[in-house]
Design a protein that fits this description.
The complex is a heterodimer of chains A (229) and B (537). Helix content of chain A is 50%, strand content 24%. Chain A is of the alpha+beta class. In chain A, helix 1 runs antiparallel to helix 2, helix 3 (86-96) crosses helix 5 (122-139) and helix 5 packs antiparallel against helix 6. Chain B is mostly helical. Classes of the chains: A alpha+beta (229), B mainly alpha (537).
Amino acid sequence: MEQEDINFSDFIASSIHDMKNSLNIQIGFLEELMAECRGKVDGAMLSQLGHTIYEASRMNVNLIQILSLYKLGKSIYPIDIAEQSVKEVLEEVVLQNQSIMEYKGITVSVVCDEDCYWYFDRDLIMGILVNALNNAYNYTTDKIRITARINNSLLEMRVEDNGKGYPENLLLESVTEKKGISFFTGSTGLGFYFSSQVAGMHRNAGKQGSLLLENGGMYGGGCFVLTLP
Amino acid sequence: MTTSLKQSKTLVIDDFQSMRSMLKGFLKDMGVTETDSAANAREALALLAANRYDIVICDYNLGQGKNGQQILEEARYRNYIGYSTIWVMVTAEKTMDMFMGAAETKPDDYLLKPITEGMLESRLNKLIEKKQLLEPIEIAVKSKDYTRAIALCDGQLKQHSPSTQELQRIKSDLLIAVGDFPAAEAFFKNILATRNIPWAKTGLGKVYFLNKDFSRAKEIFQGVLDESKMYLEAADWLSKTLDALGDLEQAQSVLAKAMELSPNVAARQQNLADVAYKNGALDLAHSSYEKAIKLGEHSVHKNSNTYAGLARVLTAKDDPKEALIVLERSRVEFKDDPEAALQTAVIEGLAYQKMGQPEKASAALAMAEDLMRSQPVNINPATTVDMANALFELGQKDKACGLLEHMVKNNHENAGIIKMVAATFENAGMGEEGSELIKKSSEEVININNRGVILAKEGKYEEGIKFIRQALGNMPNNDLMIMNLCGMIIGLMSENGKDNQLILEAKELLDRVRVINPANQKYNAYMNILNQLSSPA
């Protein structure tokens, strides 16, 4: 019986991989379409297209997370903790989501020192930040701010928005991989589970990475805080 | 080297038409005017052979045939691309095989799908910038001026940049390459003092390994794997270390575990097969060699050792007929490779011997002897040992002893090879005679060498050079002797002034040492002197 289970999850993983390929092509073409439509069609249509891309990219993010969790669980994810230019990483996260934000009229700013460097797995941490950005997209009015700084030998990365803030029941104390599954009502909680797993996997000098949801920050809205040792 | 994205000549390799047109569209929007595209490895390699590209964007997974990594390796091997080419590998997901393989040739960057235009443009611009930053170092390395290359790294490392880690890696590789182990050790320890990073810790272990401090190396590599079990480079080194320590069983189990995590790496599969064979685990060796042949099918790095290994196992498993079939395949596959021809002939001899056909065995070995005479440099020690074994079995004792004597003279300071020779004598029931011969041959080399040193000390360089040159004819791979000859040539030039012919000879000698013993401690010092001599004053 157990043998069958293993095969089934392998089967799901390879199907997800296949779906991801189609989705990637779809997103690529939608982006091209969007660029071509610029200035040719009315705003409502553009924002509809923007929303289509948002949904597709959300799906893609979910698939990547499932696949990564599957591989992390089987110890076959090639974790590569290396020094990164934090500013470069933040800017790339923004670039990846630029078109979505543009068409909802959201401005995203990055605040990070040029000489801020830290150690982490670039793709996994980008996965967390893209997820946080997708959430902020839903909660914000029109502004999102991504910041990073080193504080007490920890890297603190924040995604802040100028919306109404998270509802009381979602606010979270510091979360590591040990706790935490299915927080978001109406959502699978996959994003948060993925994020907490990945954060907890980053360890150094006896400490491990953690997540925090709070309200306030520069804009007084929702804040997603990722801390890495 | 391209200085701007717009002026770059680019190539897009992807098996999906839609991906190709999307990427081409992105590049066009960025203002790139020259973009070619290929749908498979064959098309890609034809284009790479005919054009010099600045940027290649290549999908890793191309369906049947070669994958992106294999195209990259072939393009590099055939010199279709230079160091200045930017190679970006595109992939839908990160796999262990891709990131924890044993590949020496790596792309400049990986891009995870989905790719957006903004992201691609930003990455490409950063890569162009980085190439420009690293270019002077690469030029110094190409001209073998390692001291300058290290100094250039130090200069750039003064300031923290997105390239810091890459510079650290280049510098540590250079320190190891020139044999400056104390500096390499200090460098890695310095990095590790700020952060425990797997590559730096593995690097430290490598230094211990090269210093033959195997027990310390073992501890370090084991430590890396305990902390990050997915860092398989440490597993490769741990198994090598265990092998050196004589713990073949552990070496085998470490590699077997690594293969479970990353099952498609040909080089590692081959190592597992080799260890299993040495360990007497013939069934595992058998299946591993077969897998390694399959995995290496499309690789430019496939080599006859895998086929030789399989044939050796089959012979040991009393299936010499099958071994002969494998050898025939190897002969066809590597028809222009003299080393393969030699290996094939030797193992053929063993197989025929096993089949009870001593005449055919003798004929095969006679052919092997001819081949050996025509390529005296760098014969694989395993092939020589195979040959000696076969000769002993055929009762050709003198020939076998001559072969082993030659091996001792070429490697009198290499404990591992001396051990192999001793074991071969032991197997032939000639342990005592063998150790006598090893002792005598080593002494002979030492005496010749001492005489050369005395001549040099007396300032009789010309006489010394003549003497060592002659002796080298008999032991062309003895790196100690080669280095002494090189030293005398330099000594002669310091008295008589520079001589282009001698500089050329010395550089060729150093190139030979680089192949025989990459860790030779004098290599860099001599190369520096020669570079200074040959540069116009």
